[in-house]
């Protein structure tokens, strides 16, 4: 059974189950407090938005997507299928991203791709189906599965912020690569998506001045960490670590 993270209650329950499986993560949750669930639009708009943000800062990606929304309203695959390439370039898209988006738009129009069906497909299988498509890399596939479809077991192993957070939390000597991240998270199935939310929250807390990576040794220490995390997250509820876009997907 695939756990879905459609509501905050879903994420809360998944994290409690995750910590029951791996008690090492209890201090991580104590440091962050309960992370807030973040979701994006499913379907073509969600996938297109994720592709638009590849290898860009959060600010730059948001600016390009805002121009696309201003040009098309709610973007659909029909818009990208029929739009001239030079118009899409003026909106800020690279040639590689235009090629990918036009390919996906044509495949959806021909009913060769059914993005909605992926919602109930196991994470690894859905990942393989998406990465088989032209221009869709591992990071893009996992971000789409996690944020747009709410797949509770999606695990963006190539995300640099997640890698750094795992290194700090598990006291690894070096930042783990994709294979090591996959191995580390294997015991977290089927809640790897919940783990991703947790470690992104931990990344933000770990980058705060004066952060101490040692596990909380008292209730007072844990409360102080939760308060610090809550202050940080409340200030920027929708912020994503910039490192999340720095991964090897093309475009």
What does this structure look like?
The structure is a single chain. This protein is mainly α. The protein has two domains: 123 residues, Endonuclease Iii, domain 2 (Orthogonal Bundle), CATH 1.10.1670; 106 residues, Endonuclease III, domain 1 (Orthogonal Bundle). It contains 13 helices and no strands. About 10% of the residues have low confidence.
Class per helix and strand makeup: mainly alpha
**Please, how many domains?**
2
The CATH level-2 architecture of the largest domain is identified as Orthogonal Bundle
Q: Return residue spans where pLDDT drops below 50 for at least 5 consecutive residues.
A: 216-225, 231-246
**Count of separate DSSP helical elements:** 13
Strand tally: 0
Could you report the average pLDDT, rounded to the nearest whole number? 87
Helix fraction? Answer: 55-70%
SSE order: HHHHHHHHHHHHH
Taking the alpha carbons of the first and last residues, their distance comes to 34 Å
Q: From the alpha-carbon coordinates, what is the Rg to the nearest angstrom?
A: 19 Å
Oligomeric state of shown chains? single chain
The largest pleated sheet is described as: none
Strand-residue fraction?
Answer: under 5%
The CATH class of the largest domain is Mainly Alpha
Backbone shape: globular
Please name the CATH topology of the largest domain: Endonuclease Iii, domain 2
């Amino acid at each position: 059974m695939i756990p879905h993270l459609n509501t905050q209650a879903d994420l809360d329950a998944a994290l409690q189950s995750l910590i029951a499986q791996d008690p090492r993560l209890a201090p991580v949750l104590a440091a962050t407090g309960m992370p807030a669930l973040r979701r994006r639009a499913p379907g073509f708009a969600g996938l297109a938005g994720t592709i638009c943000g590849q290898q860009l800062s959060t600010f730059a990606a948001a600016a390009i997507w805002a121009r696309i929304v201003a040009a098309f309203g709610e973007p659909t695959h029909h818009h990208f299928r029929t739009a001239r390439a030079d118009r899409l370039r003026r909106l800020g898209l690279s040639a590689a991203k235009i090629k990918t988006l036009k390919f996906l738009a044509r495949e959806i129009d021909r009913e060769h791709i059914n993005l909605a069906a992926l919602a109930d497909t196991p994470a690894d299988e859905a990942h393989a189906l998406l990465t088989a498509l032209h221009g869709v890399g591992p990071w893009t596939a996992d971000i789409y599965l996690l944020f747009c479809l709410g797949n509770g077991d999606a695990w963006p192993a190539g995300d640099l912020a997640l890698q750094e957070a795992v290194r700090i939390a598990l006291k690894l000597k070096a930042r783990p690569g994709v294979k090591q991240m996959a191995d580390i998270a294997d015991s977290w199935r089927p809640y790897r998506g919940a783990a991703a939310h947790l470690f992104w929250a931990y990344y933000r807390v770990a980058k705060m001045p004066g952060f101490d990576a040692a596990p909380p040794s008292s209730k007072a220490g844990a409360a102080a960490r939760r308060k610090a995390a809550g202050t940080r997250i409340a200030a920027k509820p929708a912020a994503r670590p910039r490192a999340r876009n720095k991964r090897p997907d093309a475009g």
